[in-house]
Amino acid sequence: MAVLVTGGAGYIGSHMVLALVDQGEDVVVLDNLSTGFRWAISPKAKLVVGDIADQQLVQKSIADHGVDAVVHFAGSIVVPDSLSDPLGYYFNNTVKSRSLIESCVETKVQYFIFSSTAAVYGIPSTNPVFEDANLAPISPYGSSKLMTEWMLRDCAAAYDLNYIALRYFNVAGADPAGRSGQSTPRATHLIKVACQTALAKRDHMDVFGRDYDTPDGTCIRDYIHVSDLIAAHMDALGHLRKGGGSKVFNCGYGRGYSVLEVIKSVEKAIGGPLDARDAPRRAGDPPELVAGADKVRVALGWQPQHQDLDFIVQSALAWERHLQRRNDAA
Ligand code: UDP
Q1: How far apart are CA 72 and CA 290, in angstroms?
Q2: Residue 229: beta bridge partners?
Q3: Which residue lies with its CA nearest to atom 10 of ligand 1?
Q4: Is 194 in the pocket of ligand 1 (CB under 6 A)?
Q5: What is the mean pLDDT of each successive set of 10 residues along the chain, which is 330 residues long?
Q6: Which of 40, 70, 125, 329 has the most CB atoms lying inside 10 A of its own CB?
Q7: Which fold has domain 2-172+223-251?
Q8: Which of 115, 192, 210, 285 to mutate to test the pocket of ligand 1 (most atoms within 8 A of CB)?
Q9: Is the dihedral of CA 181, 186, 188, 192 positive or negative?
Q10: CA 152/CA 98 separation, integer angstroms
Q11: Which CATH architecture has domain 190-221+254-329?
């Protein structure tokens, strides 16, 4: 039996691969290497370079390796890009996911774990936001992911397929053992951008909006350490393999931090100020997004280990320094 990880060369996917091989699982990575890195993949995993919508390749990979579970990370993830390129996002995230799911149904893969997002909630009327809240994405990114959740729901009803969709809040940090981290040079996510600024890889950073209706005027997010997020995936896999049914869970800690609090944490870690400049609001940003985070704990027994913003920031910074050393050595 093996697990197929799509997008296993990417930030979150590469951490999943590490967790699976650490558990002695056979792992097949399917990645087109458009944004991921070959070096990010554990040497204990098998890499198939290709597209999730290449049904011949996917079905052959599933059959050749006896795949019983697919963990699907591959996709486009930048909210602002999705506003300027909605058709690209629907194609990559929705159309191609449909093709992948069809390959799973054709080859009788029983278990499917899907990277969904808190962006399915849009601007929630209350925070924390629970799984049964109104689903009203305000970006094509959120819509493209929600459509995939719906395909999975309908396929689980029609076929012998069980799934878990995990709605990620703001994923950050790096493998505490230093084996992987967020490596995209043009990343847009706050903690990554702040760490790059801290190490002078950028000359300054922007704070997108200081006039939100929040205590310090900046947006609030629920930052979750990537290793805790992966632990939820491992719990989800165990649940499905034990015969557990299809479910949707939020993945966050239930505690929000503002943009300025994140910047302060980075400043604390480096012992000096960051050049963070006020900038206009960024389109598609809800003011506050904090997970109602109980359901995954109760249903899967998830026990997060790194619920401390300073720890998340320190591990992200350690990875950024590692990347800097790599580049200096290159
Ligand atoms: N943000 C910011 N400056 C940056 C990147 C992000 O002020 O350079 C803000 C962004 O407007 C949002 C929060 O940080 O309020 C988190 O954004 P991110 O892109 O990390 O994740 P998202 O919540 O969009 O998935």
Answers
A1: 24
A2: none
A3: 208
A4: no
A5: 97 98 98 96 98 98 98 94 96 98 98 98 96 96 98 98 98 97 90 97 97 98 98 98 98 98 98 98 91 98 98 98 82
A6: 70
A7: Rossmann fold (3.40.50)
A8: 285
A9: positive
A10: 9
A11: Alpha-Beta Complex (3.90)
